[in-house]
Amino acid sequence: MESCRLSATELACRRGDRVLFRGLTLALGGGEACQIAGANGIGKSSLMRLLAGLGEPFAGTIARDGEVGLIDERPALDPHLPLGRALAFWERFDGRAAEAVGRLGLAALAEVPVRFLSTGQKKRAALARLIAQAAPIWLLDEPLNGLDTDAVALVETIVAEHCAAGGLAVVASHQAIALPGAQRIALRDYAA
Amino acid sequence: MTGRRLLALLRRDLALLLLGGRRGGAMLPLLFFVAVAMLFPFAVGPDAPLLARTGGGVIWVAALLAAILPLDRLVEPDLELGMFDQWALRGLAEEWVIAIRVVAHWLSFGPPLMLAALPASALLGIAAETLRTVELGLLVGTPGLAAIGVMVAALTAGLRGGAALAGLLVVPLAVPLLVFGAGSLAPGGETGLALTAAVSLVLLAIAPFAGGAAVRAARG
Fold it and tell me: Membrane-crossing residues (chain B) (predicted)?
């Protein structure tokens, strides 16, 4: 995997007229992982969007080296299409087959329209899309929502494999997730 | 790489917008167009010369109304689904996405409208010579309508009451197209076609940039 890097310096984030957090600094290189923990509404998702470059920070700078893959609460799959065809769009777009479909237990769901899938199944589908994107930087916003215990273990394994292959991962979750050797940032410590 | 991505986008857009597509129902604007053309003679009475004289203009107004119908499904659903975020992460500029959508939107209503203009002109009693000008006008004018439509759809995406606002915004923007397009039907008005085409080209050139900026602003 190509080399990658993600760093943020003295980051502050504002939502409306409220500053959610300030002074946040983090630096990750290839093979490293980080968990962002914190209660609902503390700014985990906002931080992920800033790190992804989808928003402008209120203060501070972000440096990125490598393509970003993001999972958030929206799976970005056409709801009316059968899962297989919805994923096929991203396969064509990214030029790579979503080979993780079988491993994620989605093979039997290929004919089921995305809108009929459960929360956990949509999360798995988003993971299949993420893996096929082959981006070195993974930003996972609440990746465990709706997943059963087996799937949680699978996500932990997949993230560990990604880091072992030289990628980096930032996981925002209020749930416990086992990421060996991961930094842990409690967003509460930076609350403004 | 960009070529492959744009092809994938176009394929998806067409599947969504064309006949039978989820967001299209390109059939609906078409039926609406014919229905307007059909209603007009009922409204003004069976005065054949009057109908023939005003019929071309009616077709243009009906085309404008038909182009407004699918506006709320052109951009907003993809913002809500997070598609635009995923495209941005992959380094695809919003301008490309909007440009492709203009093409797909035009294909979904432009050519079908030109076909539907045939039965509509029969209903209005338009002469064959005038029909030729109407068809040429639609050919060069509907791309401009498509550009306005996608641009306005991007501007109003995510706004409350966006659908109604979109219709309201399209009408004044479409005035030049309508003036020149319908004006080309007047005796000696053939230069109107060239002006319609010019307005269309300008709109097509602006649309990707205006629409792309609007999408980025809507993402917040």
Answer: 26-45, 57-75, 96-118, 138-157, 164-186, 192-215
Residue A29 sits at φ, ψ, to 5 deg, of -115, -175
- B199 lies in which domain range? 2-219
Among B55, B23, B17, smallest CA distance to B39 is for B55
Task: Point out the residue among A76, A78, A92 whose CB comes nearest to the CB of B86.
Answer: A76
Per-residue pLDDT of chain B (220 residues; tens, 9 = 90+): 788 999 999 999 998 888 666 655 667 778 888 888 888 888 888 888 888 888 888 889 888 888 888 888 899 999 999 999 999 999 999 999 999 999 999 998 899 899 999 999 888 888 888 899 999 999 999 999 999 999 999 999 988 777 788 888 999 999 999 999 988 888 877 889 999 999 999 999 999 999 999 999 888 6
Contact A54, A10 (CB under 8 A): no
Q: How distant is the Cα of A55 from the closest Cα of chain B, in angstroms?
A: 7
Rounded to whole angstroms, how far apart are CA atoms A66 and A5? 7
Return the CATH architecture of domain A29-55+66-184.
3-Layer(aba) Sandwich (3.40)
The two beta strands, A59-65 and A5-15, are antiparallel
Strand order in the sheet with A5-15: A18-29, A5-15, A59-65
Angle at B60 between CA B55 and CA B109, to 5 degrees: 130
What residue type is assigned to position B197 of the chain? A
Cβ under 8 Å to B: A residues 120-159: 133, 135
Q: Which of B8, B89, B220 sits opposite A92 (nearest CB)?
A: B8
Every domain of chain A and the residues it spans: 29-55+66-184
- Nearest-neighbour CA in chain B from A86: distance (Å): 10
Q: Would you place residue A87 in the very low, low, confident or very high pLDDT band (cuts 50, 70, 90)? A: very high
Residues of A in contact with B5 (CB under 8 A): 93
User: Both tokens of residue B140?
Assistant: 């060069």
> Strands (DSSP E) along chain A, which ranges?
5-15, 18-29, 33-37, 59-65, 68-71, 137-141, 168-172, 183-186
Asked if A93 lies within 8 A of B1 by C-beta distance, the reply is no
Q: Into how many domains does chain B fold?
A: 1
CA-based nearest residue in chain B for residue A73: B82
